Amino acid sequence: MRQERDSNLKNPMCAPFESLLMLAAAGEEMDAAEQAEVNEHLAHCAVCSEALEREKDLLLLLAANRREPDAAMLASCRASLEDALDRQEERSWPRRLAGAFTPLGWLSARPAWSAALLVMIGFSVGILGPRFFAHPAMPRVAANSAAPDTSSAQFVNSNDASRSSLGTLDLHSAEVAGINVFPANANESPQVEVQLRAQQPVTLQGTVDDGNVKRVLLDVLRNNEKFDPDVRLSAVELLRTRTNDPEVRSVLCHAVHTDHNAAVRLKALEALNGAEPQDIIRQTMLDALVDDQNPGVRIEAMNSLRDMAAKGQVESDAHTLAVLRGLMEKDPSTYIRLQSAAAIRDLGPRQKF
Amino acid sequence: MGMSVALERDARQAALVKLSEEHALVRNAQAGDRLAFEELVRRYDREVLRLATNLVHRAEDARDIYQEGFLRVYRNLHRFRFECSFYTWLYRIVTNVALDHLRRRTSRREDQAPVPDEADGSTRDFFDRQPALGAGSNPERRLLGQELGEHISAALDRLSPRERMVFEMKHYQGLKLRAIGDLLGTSEETVKNSLFRATRKLRASLDAMR
After folding, report:
1. Percentage of residues in chain A with pLDDT exceeding 90?
2. B8 touches A at CB < 8 Å
């Protein structure tokens, strides 16, 4: 405290402006009124002007004495982190459980024994496996042979004519645990695998054109509060190639309006950007531009609208122009204001701003 | 103006693409993809290490903050729900680790750097007393530079952990006061007050060096 008092005696400044001068030295953080107040004061107060310069000198002095970690230190930290992550994984309980039953540490030092054990396990499973795992009552419907068998869940091909396994499963209310996508050749749709949680886990396989797969993906986006964001993101990613389908367009627009997760709303807007221009899409983008709280989503909406305006796909009707004019005048984002002005210019005769 | 708007638009597009890529990395890392997690680490670890290096004196302490921070991120990655950017979430964890470290260190008096005394007892201002350190510094100037560094370290040690963190994040991480408040779980006004106290203390400490 005494140090601060002595310092203030040596470095006088007008007390009411001390905190504002600190912000001024920091280079920002003042609103227009505060900035004007400070500028007005500095124009008439040499003491505060000098204090501001001393404040900036202090920051420059501190900045000049900063330390930058060198590449060797960074590399060393990364290596240590990798070791720590390896230990973390080793401590996870499945490994401990597996280690309790299999002498992994012993085997790793004896490759010949490891190979022999592997061969014995392979023979045992081949000979004894069918006796343990075959069950005539198990309704194992033919699965797509190209897709890997990921779990003990029941595999159902979406287009299988015998719908007995799907008949008892209400796809609208089934809980989606995960979605996997398997790339396909250039002219083929990727294979989709949807893991459903029901009384018995079910994995639904097919392409996004398959009725059941599409139904599940659309339901994920319609009932967004029930599913994890990563599942919803996967659903949007898969449906973006089908935006010519009116039902898909409608659900993507619904996601833009209602999903709680900004990344999902952003991805849905990106998906709609490539779609055939429709009134519902234009209105969805305008709504996102005006109402969305996330700046990234609003910027994407603005960019998409500008794209459409540049291609002549947006009508210069009174409503659209009124929205854009309002944004140009009042939006807190400079980017949105500039882009709104540019969009108005693109839409029609030169407007007076 | 058209060119700058176009450039800004390109920059925004690039940022959105990067955001989508990062979301994909996070999802893969949450699913257990270690390579995806390591890619996320590489995107931010230099900044994290820079923050840690300038908050603590010793390199091994900076390493501890780095490692503990990223291990906590790894263990809690399944809790990240994309409600904020990954950067914000990561920095919340790292700043908490760094604050814990600073608080533990503050309670250990042996870590406080001693304040050297000037011999001549002059009353000139601290800035007036600083020698001009040119590019071709001779050994005497290097020594003076080293003493200056020690003075500055001692001055920074007088800040509370929160004041130190706020000062570092505002002036050297380029964050706005509201963003700092969000990271530290407090209000913008509280952050502003911390910054104000930190600046006052530093000014007083460096002026008091004689």
Report:
1. 7
2. yes
Q: How far apart are CA B23 and CA A294, in angstroms?
A: 16
Q: Which residues contact A275 (CB under 8 A, 6 or more apart)?
A: A243, A244, A249, A281
B115 touches chain A (CB under 8 A): no
Domain count, chain A: 1
The answer to the question of residue A168 being in a domain is no
ipTM: 0.78
Q: Within a domain: residue A101? A: no
Does A103 or A258 have the greater pLDDT score?
A258
| Facing B195 at nearest CB: one of A22, A28, A66 | A22
Rg (CA), chain A: 32
Q: Which fold has domain B11-111?
A: Rna Polymerase Sigma Factor; Chain: A (1.10.1740)
B6 to chain A: closest CA residue: A339
Chain A hits for B159, Cβ within 8 Å: none
Answer whether A269 touches B (CB < 8 Å).
no
Q: Take residue A304 and report the two structure tokens written for it.
A: 């998409």
- Examine residue A353 and state whether it is found in any structural domain, yes or no: no
How many A-B residue pairs are in contact by the CB < 8 A criterion? 146
Q: Are A76 and A83 in contact (CB under 8 A)?
A: no
A197-233 pLDDT, tens digit per residue, is 766 677 778 888 888 888 888 988 988 878 888 888 8
Locate A195 and state its tokens: 């893991």
Residue A86, in any domain of the structure: no
The beta strands (E) that lie in B50-198 are given as none
B142/B136 Cα distance (integer angstroms): 10
* Dihedral class, residue A29 (left if φ above 0, else alpha if ψ from -120 to 50, else beta): left
Task: Out of 1.10.10.10, 1.25.10.10, 1.10.3720.10, 1.10.10.410, select the CATH number for domain B116-210.
Answer: 1.10.10.10
Q: Which of residues 43-102 of B touch A (CB under 8 A)?
A: 45-46, 49-50, 53-54, 59, 62-63, 66-67, 70-71, 74-75, 81-83
Q: Structure pTM? A: 0.49
